[in-house]
Design a protein that fits this description.
Helices cover about 30% and strands about 15% of the residues. The protein has helices at about 10-15, 20-30, 35-45, 50-55, 140-150, 170-180, 195, 205-210, 230-240, 260-270, 295-310; strands spanning about 100-105, 105-110, 155-160, 185-190, 215-220, 245-250, 275-280, 315-320, 330. Strand 8 (about 315-320) and strand 9 form a beta hairpin. Bound molecules: iron/sulfur cluster.
Length: about 325
């Protein structure tokens, strides 16, 4: 019998059709071609990738748009500043088998996919060797064996790249295998894909997540309130009603979200979309992105101002990751005078 060919889901069409040419991005936003040579140069370091849905959330004609600045390659990426390195979290030392990153006691991270829907210029994994670390075929079996053998584990985190780049079918299969492991209770998915293509939160995915038998959290990555579209809000509210916990982790980025008004509005907008603020991370010192960094005292001052305006449950935890520590390191926030 001839195999049935199902058309790819809409979100997969969006992934195929994303913007990867700097000239096209500038033209879509009515921006002058004077920005093109730098964008083309820096795109050779780390390619441009941005879904059209995300471009639609940007303000045409504004080269300082906070969403555009997260994706537009610029010459500052060539600055080689001491202390900014290819693997700032030393993840290469925490990979017991390909595709597995094991840093903390009761949880383990699986690198499901090397691809993302969007290339964020500040990504701490912009130099990550994904080709050696994707779990498929024999690597997937080894990764699952690793989890089965370690009965101290309670949680599996699907990460990437972006794990939601994987098809629902692949996710369903993997989640089924994880839920069959007795000691695994919790599933966490770290993804930015629903932010940049909200249609990725399909009803089918919702059913997979809500019926797995695992306590499930989707951790989104939203840095600015302008990233929260009505479509994303609708999809998140639906997932929340289906019993999925929705959390957000953001990164403090110089020139993008380092003002108190933006942070306050971000955390209020998250809650309106049924997403709870979780972490506000200090920038990880990755090579090629030092221009986004804000010092720790500056971040503390920002968080203190946020704390004065937000109720405790809307205040994300200010944190940083120090390689080798058994958990994230929380940074103290002293109340503003
Ligand atoms: S979506 Fe996440 S993993 Fe992908 S480039 Fe952006 S920050 Fe990095």
């Amino acid at each position: 019998m001839q195999a049935l060919n199902f058309p790819p889901a809409d979100w997969q069409m969006s992934l195929k059709n994303l913007v990867s040419d700097p000239a096209e991005l500038l033209a879509l936003l009515n921006l002058p071609a004077e920005h093109l040579p730098a964008a083309e140069r820096a795109a050779k370091l780390f390619g441009l990738r941005v879904p059209r849905e995300f471009v639609e959330l940007m303000h045409p004609g504004d080269i300082n748009d906070p969403l555009l600045k997260q994706v537009l390659p610029i010459d500052a990426e060539f600055i080689d500043k001491p202390g900014y390195v290819a693997d700032p979290l030393a993840e290469s030392q925490a990979r017991p088998v390909p595709g597995v990153v094991h840093k903390y006691q009761d949880r383990v991270l699986l690198i499901l996919s090397g691809a993302c829907a969007i290339n964020c210029r500040y990504c701490f994994r912009r130099h990550f060797p994904y080709e050696e670390n994707r779990i498929s075929g024999a690597a997937k079996d080894r990764a699952l064996d690793y989890i089965r053998e370690r009965t101290e584990l309670r949680e599996v985190i699907l990460s990437g790249g972006d794990p939601l780049v994987s098809s629902d079918k692949r996710l369903e299969e993997l989640i089924g295998e994880l839920s069959a492991i007795n000691h695994i209770e919790r599933l966490r998915i770290h993804s930015r894909l629903p932010v940049v293509i909200p249609r990725r939160l399909t009803e089918h995915l919702e059913r997979i997540l809500s019926s797995s038998g695992l306590q499930t959290a989707l951790v989104l990555h939203i840095n600015h309130p302008q990233e929260i579209s009505d479509e994303l809000t609708d999809a998140c509210q639906r997932l929340r009603r289906a019993g999925i916990t929705l959390l957000n982790q953001a990164v403090i980025l110089r020139g993008i979200n380092d003002e108190v008004e933006i942070q306050v509005e971000l955390n209020r907008a998250l809650y309106r979309s049924s997403i709870l603020p979780y972490y506000l991370f200090l920038f990880d010192p990755v090579k090629g992105a030092s221009h986004f960094d804000l010092s720790e005292p500056q971040a503390q001052a920002l968080a203190a101002q946020m704390q004065a305006q937000l109720p405790g449950y809307l205040m994300p935890r200010l944190a940083k990751e120090i390689p080798g520590r058994p958990s994230k390191t929380l940074i103290q926030v002293t109340p503003a005078d």
